[in-house]
Amino acid sequence: MGNSKLYKGSLNTIILKLLEEKGKMYGYEITQKVKELTKGELKITEGALYPALHKLEAEGLLDVEVAKVDNRLRKYYKLTEAGEKETINRLAELEEFIRSMQNLVNPKWSIE
């Protein structure tokens, strides 16, 4: 994908938003949901996802639950209270960024 670098800066916000909607998810589930929502346009690699998850956890934005599924341990990530607040802030910042980019890319020329 040509604009994958554009997504890279938004990865943490994407993760936070998905967890806000789903409650808790495990890593592979996050990658598949992003792929589904973007109709295959964005594929998050494990090499990008897990460092982002660990960073968000270290920042106190995520909690981790470990559950045994089919004789394997699976880590589920969910938002902390601080993570819920930060999600709101980051989504607002992202929306403002998108509005600013739209104004730059498609300015409304008017004589006033």
UniProtKB/TrEMBL annotation:
It comes from the Bacteria. Residues 15-86 form the Transcription regulator PadR N-terminal domain. This is PadR-like family transcriptional regulator. It comes from Cellulophaga geojensis KL-A. The lineage of its organism: Bacteria, Pseudomonadati, Bacteroidota, Flavobacteriia, Flavobacteriales.
